[in-house]
Structures are given as C-alpha cells and as structure tokens.
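Teaching note: in complex prediction, the entire set of molecules is handled at once rather than each chain in isolation. The prompt given to students was simply: 'Predict the structure of this complex.' The entities are:
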Amino acid sequence: MLDMKYIRENLDETERSLRTRGGESYLGGFRDLDERRRTLLKEGETLKALRNTVSDEIGRTKDKSLVQDKIVEMREVSQKIKGLDEELNQVDDQLNSFLLTVPNIPHATTPVGISENDNVLVRSWGEPVTLPFKAMAHWDLGEDLGILDFERGAKITGARFTLYRGAGARLERALINFMLDLHGDAHGYQEVLPPFMVNRDSMQGTGQLPKFEDDLFKLVDPDFFMIPTAEVPVTNIHRGEILKKSDLPISYCAYTPCFRREAGSYGKDTRGLIRQHQFNKVELVKFVHPSESDAALETLTGHAEKILQLLKLPYRVMALCSGDIGFSAAKTYDLEVWLPGQSCYREISSCSTFGDFQARRASIRFREDEKAKPEFVHTLNGSGLAVGRTLVAILENYQQEDGSVLIPEVLRPYMGGMERISRL
RNA sequence: GGAGAGAUGGCCGAGUAGGUCGAAGGCGCUCGCCUGCUAAGCGAGUAUACUGGGAAACCGGUAUCCAGGGUUCGAAUCCCUGUCUCUCCGCCA
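The expected output is the structure of the full assembly:
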C-alpha cells in the first residue's frame, strides 16, 4: 500500500511512475475521495468535541433538571454525528479498498519496459550445457527412472499434481535440507516452519488480497487460504509489530509447500513439474532498515545464486522491467536456470524488494531510537530456491546417455551416499 | 465436539450500582539531581493512528481499555455478535 499523504502531495509524479507498469490510470478518483474524507472528518470531529464538553458539563451538574435542554440538544448532535460517521465509514472503505488495489511504485533502478521481452540481463553464470547426445526432458527422464509418477498424481488429485517415488522423493527432500542448511548455517537466516494456511489479514498484508483471490486455493469454512508462497506466513510473522532497530535486519528462511490455482495458464507447461498446483519451495525473507534495502536485495539474490553455484547449474540473472514486476514489488531479479531438455532458461527464483509497501499494509515498523516515531521497515524475499524446478534442472543437466542421472556432489551426503539414479 | 474463565498502556496489574478514566499502582525505559563505588534515593517524562495550525520545536481536536455492532446527553464499565487465550471433559496424529 502506498502512503496516502505521499500520493496526496505527489499525485502526478506517482501516477507517472505507476504507468510504467503498463496500466492506463491508477490514481483517478483519489483526490475527490480524499477531500471528501477530510471534510467529513472535520465536521464529525467538531461535533464530537462539542458533545464531549457538554456531556462533561451534564455529568458535573447534580441537578439534572437544569440540563434537560442540553440533553435534548445533544441527542440531536449525536444523531448528526451518527450520520456523518456512517458516511465517513463508506468513504473510508472506498478509499481503503482503492488504495489496496494500487500497485507498488517501481524502484528507480527497475528498467522501464512493457513485457518480459524488456527484462535486462544482469549477469550469467556457467556455460549452458550442450550434451553430446539428444537431451531428454525431465518428464521422460523422471518416468523412465520411476521417480516421477504423473499419472498417479493426476489420479489421486488431478492435473498438475505429481507423485514422487523412491530416489525422486528423496532427492526433493535432499534439496530442501541442503538449501535450509546452507541458508541457516552459512548465510545467517533463522529457519522457521510456518503454518501452510493463513487468514485473510495475512494475505492482505503481503498483497495477495484483495486483488488476486482467484489465484489462491481457498477453504470454505474457516476463511483461510492455502499459502501460495512462504512469503505470506513469514512476512506476516511481524505484522502489527514495532521492532527494535537493533533487531534489524531480521532474516528468515522457510521450507513450505506452495499452492497455486494457476488460473489463466491453461495449456501452459502442461507436462512435467514446471507448473504444479502444489510445489515445494525454500524461501528467504528479510526485514531491514530502509537504508539497507537496496544492498539487501543484492545479498539476498546472491544467497539464492549460491545454491545454483554449488549445484553447478548454469543460470542467468534478469532484472525484471516495470511491466513485468509483481504487484507488491519495487524491484525484482529473476534467476533463470538452464534446462538442456528444453534448450531454454526457466525461472527458478524470484528475488524482490518491496520497499515499505508490504510493511505499510501489514504495519511492520521500527524506531530509529527510543523516542523516535515508528517508521516502516523494508521487506524483501526471494526463492532460495523453488525445489521442484531445481530437481528438474538436476535431472536435465546431469542426465547421462544411458538415461541415468548423476547426483550433484553436494547432495550426496543427503542421499545416503548415492551417486547416481539409474533405472531399476 | 461439550462445560467454564478471561482478553486493559512496553510488561505486570487496579478499575464492574455508566460521568471527575487515556485510564490508579508497580516494573521497565529516558532525562536531570544526588551520591562515589558495580546499589539506593529524589524529580520529571514515557502509547498509537488520523486530523487542524506552524518553517520547525511544538500546540489543538478526534479515536483507540481484543474486534464489530447496540443502549445513553455520556461506556473500559451495560447489551448482542465474532475472534483469540486458558482450564476441565470427550476425541485424536
């Protein structure tokens, strides 16, 4: 959520920045609502002040017969107040739901552009593997090796659900442990294991609601949602809190499954593990002092990259353009891993800074010093990494001509020493 | 799922025949004084949001005693609904 006062004072400039995202108009109607609100507020508060002083007088007067006329008068005032309050509530609701649908202002360094074609290559690591034989796609490899069972997954639940078996299941678990260990031990993140369902307030705090309810799996009876990413429960750990400056930066890493409707992506990536309704992810989340957030995005992205480097998977880093960044993000780097089976780079991590956008929605603050007013922290997060897609990348990059798949060395201790997955 | 208890300021904790309660008291914290030994004492201060004025320091208004409604001239205090926490019973990984 953007700061109402900031919008009020920088309306044109804000509108201009927002339009680099590609929409037509973002702030139309704001000025009228805002002015209406302040007028109502002033009127109501003046009457309330009157009522307070007169009621005080009434209270002080022992002989109530002396103040009958005032009681009658105040009865009317109260009626008026009630009317004004009702109208104010409506305007407040309108203004609020309006503000909740306005996306974040792109960071000054976010490249301006319309679509993913305008994303900017920042750097690349490793050479895209060219295999001396015809590379297989991971879905064929996985089925041949008996470690991915797409048919059973579809039977148990439906399309975009997969059953992992044997070494496949273990490899997924190995990756989760490897990632958590690295981020926890080497990168200084505290591991957390949050709830996988969250309430409406949490979804609103990180920006999934109210705008993107269709992308979420929703429970019917308690008004809960399955998390689409650990970003939601983990960022909301500190919702409504005022942190100490000395607590910052706070760094969490979390493994969770993620649940996404993938509405609107029918027919896209229908084969294999790339786009599932349920997938595993290790997420990195940071709460930082505003002055640190730019640097924090770089280090956080580096932490995600480290996983790919240790797994020796070639990748590149893309700076997303203004038209491609998410609703809540100010700036985003995508990590894209090379997939020989498909001869292309595919997103495997997305690292973003949100500035104070989420912190304002979720009211996460800190004090510069004991007496200072609370200020909003900055929040960041990034996948470190999407586990299913990492498994895909391993299968495709480490495949051998005989159909077996070598296990990256760093994962072998997590696989009971196994060096290779072969056909049974 | 059944029965009961409770939710007050950073923390603890008063406050139920409605008014003088933004809220006693204690702790913690900040500043000052005193004192000279790792302490005690004394004094002052110590919530948040919105809003008006001011260049600013700051001053004023309104709201907030879990949340949302209601009664009333007036509610932390009365009524209704919801949420959460705790205890007991049942069930259960």
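Point out the following to students. The first helix of chain A runs from residue 4 to 9. The first strand of chain A starts at residue 120 and ends at 125.
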